Amino acid sequence: MKALRKIIYAGVLLSLASCSEDYLEVYPTEVLTDTQVAAAAEINEEVAKGTLLGIYENMYRFGSGGTSAQEDFGVTAQFMQMDILSGDMAHLGKSYNRQVDISELTATLDPDNNVNYRAWRFLYRIINLSNLVIDASGGNDVVPETETGKYTIGQAKALRAYAYFFLVHAYVNDISDLSKPVLPIYRSAEELDQPKSPLQDVFDFVVSDLLDAETLLDGFVREEKIEINQDIVRGLLAKTYGALNNWPKTEEYAKKVIDAGYPIMTADEVALLPDEDGSVGGFNDVNTIPGVMWGINITGEGQGLASLLSWWGFVDAYSYSYAAVGNPKGMDRGLYNNFRTDDIRKYQFSSTLRPLGKFYYKGAQNNGFGLFSGPQSNIDSDSHYMRVAELYLLHAEAAAENGNNSAARASLKALLDLRLDDSSYVDGLAGKALAEEAALQARLELWGEGQSYFIMKRRRQTRTRGENWLDFAGQSFNHNDEKLTYEIPQNEILFNSNLDGQN
Length: 503
Description:
Structural class: mainly alpha
Largest sheet: 2 strands, antiparallel
Number of strands: 8
Strand order of the largest sheet: 1-5
Strand content: 5-15%
Number of domains: 1
CATH architecture: Alpha Horseshoe
């Protein structure tokens, strides 16, 4: 099976890498066609499954957004950029000019800027390739007879939904304006040049795909954490319903994930505590941290990433790359000031609020945690996309919004009891105040993990940049400010005659 995977991974990814960068194609002609995938799948349905697994690998590969930019490495590249836009990840240095146009809020106002292009192309590639798998398996309305077939199409629908969930947040200023036409929906690889659909229709499509996936993936036992199982689908449903402020459904699905039994990361796992050697922390190995529900196990054997071309290179100061040589990221000072005095998560950050004790190259402890102590290449620290802690906090937020204060406090304290000496202050909170506290704790707990932007838009928040920002320190930005949202690439508008301009 692993040999088959490697062959198919390579085939799919080589086809992706050959895509032209001359103009934006939602459906690059160089990838496998639906006819090709379908014909192969008729012979062996493992081929369709392998194509699916190739999509997963493309989620972290360099160039997955169709450019040669060093910031083009899939999901975590977008996480980092959107964390900056949210205001929670402060840009602390401008050496080498990396992410400057994001922190200065100029890229998001220029539809010709590659920041907008990379995200669009990356996410619509996921949609296109998912559609190829779904089409090859019989189409959207087919329920395959075999378990392999059901599990394959279930994951493909979940991936398609995730891409649209991401697009909605990244390219729509106000996600509460459900009547506004915002994005083209592609239900099949045969559909081309679709017009914008209303936001409500896009959300309905996401929910429909995820509900189908929830059913199709019943009983699926994955081999690797990169694969989407039923619990991940339910987590995505909770997040989607949260974006819609459908709090009863958010609470329901977040609780389903909690009940699945994933443990919350311990104090030793989340922070480099005093007198510890750091060998169990660092967020660098998804397989040894049960609290990480979804992520990619990156190995040095053919999967290693060059440090300049990875999330770790931009954030981990111990790995010899941008974070170490003049382009550091750190927690916004205003956000940091919300930590309680007894919060162990304060050990995640240096005095300058750089994440020296949260994210670090897995060999850093062997080199005395010295700056520049990691390699220039072959990063094999893992990427993670979902932790169960997020669902505990989202459940607390939704339960409080629903007036279910006791359940909200229980979920919030389940996490805070692992972070604080005393979480009793939570007992004095209720309703909106309790919901806001859960959302705040999510920002603190999940800093640098690509969730702050989604929280901002879900809560319809205004964010104020702290004093440690190089740009716009002390200035406030509303969640629907166009400066915080990507533009539809201008070439895409020119290429698709059915699009009627920017959102």
